[in-house]
Design brief:
The termini are far apart. The relative contact order is 0.13. The chain is built from 3 helices and 6 strands; from the N terminus they run ββαββαββα. The protein is an alpha+beta fold and 115 residues long. Strand 1 (2-5) and strand 2 form a beta hairpin. The longest helix has 23 residues, at 92-114. The protein has helices at residues 35-40, 66-72, 92-114; strands at 2-5, 8-11, 45-48, 60-63, 77-79, 85-87. It is extended, with a radius of gyration of 18 Å.
């Protein structure tokens, strides 16, 4: 049971989607560089939806700002035909994975310096 309303599709049940992550589909594979710097350039924010959003006006939510993400990882930001921007939130996970690895490396280096 679903209905389409303007820029959204609403569904009463769960929607399950999987992206093709198989290495056999990919060329030119490289780790995300300077992941920590990219994460630092993106704010995690709380906000309330406004009347332009096609969401419940005043509803509190959390997220990121598409324009900030676009500056550091434009591949995961889409400009819709309306001119409004959208973030593929699932792909932020790859950035977070690489930033955790960078932090781990820095921690290991600091541990060596302490010894």
């Amino acid at each position: 049971n679903f209905n389409g309303t303007g820029t959204a599709i609403r569904c009463a049940g769960d929607i399950v989607a999987y992206y093709s992550s198989d290495i056999r589909y990919k060329n030119n594979i490289k780790p995300i560089e300077n992941a920590i710097n990219k994460v630092q350039a993106i704010r995690g924010v709380t906000f309330e939806w406004n009347e332009e959003s096609h969401k419940e006006t005043g509803k509190k939510d959390v997220g990121v700002i598409a324009q900030e993400v676009e500056k550091v990882l434009p591949e995961i930001v889409e400009t819709r035909s309306s001119g409004y921007k959208a973030v593929d939130y699932q792909k932020l996970t790859a950035l977070l994975i690489e930033s955790v690895k960078e932090l781990k490396s820095e921690i290991e280096e600091l541990k060596k310096q302490i010894k």
